[in-house]
Known about the structure:
Elements: H1 13-32, H2 46-54, H3 59-80, H4 86-104, H5 112-125, H6 130-141, H7 144-155, H8 166-179, H9 182-190, H10 195-204, H11 206-223, H12 233-258, H13 265-294, H14 297-303, H15 307-310, H16 313-328, H17 341-365, H18 370-379
Helix pairs in contact: 1-2, 1-3, 1-16, 1-17, 3-5, 3-11, 4-5, 4-18, 5-11, 6-11, 7-13, 8-10, 12-13
Amino acid sequence: MTQTLTPMRPRIVLADSLRGFALMGLYIVHMVEYFELYWYKPEPGWVHNLIFFLFGGKAYGLFALLFGLSFFIILDNYQRRGQDFRLRFCWRLTVLLVFGYLHSLLYAGDILQLLALCGFLLVLSHHLSTRWLIGFSAFFLIQIPQIILIILYSIVPEWSYPGPRFPGLMMANFEVFAHADLPGLLRHNLMEGQWGKWAFFLETGRLWNIIGLMFVGAVLGRSGFFEKTDFKATRLMIYLMAAVASYLVLWALKGGVINLAPDGMPRWAAGQVFTYYENLALIAAGVFLFTLLFNATFSRRLLMCFAPAGRLTLTFYIAQSLVFVPVYYGFGLAAYSFMGQVPSLLLGVACWLIQMVLAWFWLRNFRYGPLEWVWRKLTFIGFNSVRTN
């Protein structure tokens, strides 16, 4: 007897558009920070302040949230067809981890490795109820592991230390990025160049932030938030205003609360916790504002222009490093030393527009981006999809 299987859901254009917007934000941040070499000899100014307020700490957060959403959609699609895709998804994450490591040999700030490793937590918890997922997301977004560390640093001073250690590791990386030849850069990033990034993720609490946002994405996937077509503008406006109000309250309280912590790592880590709280409020505000504008006829067509790039995020994310790391690093043009943030911002905007056009042309002829196609092919090696029962 043939069983009619539930069809897989169509692509969610709102999610693709938001993912493309997040990719743009992450790319512009990379451009104005010279793919990390801005921090070698920083010169703060209005470009830095503006771009980092708009996208710093937010674009990667949207990426993590949408990764959790994509995770849920893929597993749910196969569950609808009567298949448990969790083991295959673990293999998919392993392939992404390899992609990320290879990418990090050129650009040590790669985020794909972190997303892949954290994705295994989503696999382990996929069978749990939505309440459990909400609990996990709250645990990590509140920064409970970081708060426990702050308490331990405060009550056991000998466990604490004067300040974060990742800046020293990163400065050693910057010396290599700025002056090494290409073979030297690759050798450095095989192992030594990786430590600064992971120390940054742990000491600042960004690791917990990313895990929490991935769980939020999975919860939003279960709720069908991005698939709804009957959003009420009034409700979205209320959500938006609540998010903005939360940011303002956090901003007002930040200094007073941080000063309650002892000097050294406790106070520094407390400042990081509040920074992530502020970023969460702004990420929420951004999602609600984007959704509000996407559901308005006059702005939907404009925001949908981000959707093609949102379907080629893996290809573009890695291609951006392949093109611009040689522009800014010492083995290439060493533009970090002379270009400046304003020209870098203008170059970034111009090249982003080119990427949007390329994505549109590519998807007119192909279903997947080049690296998306490779990732998919490697994912499904030896996998037979169930068609009938």
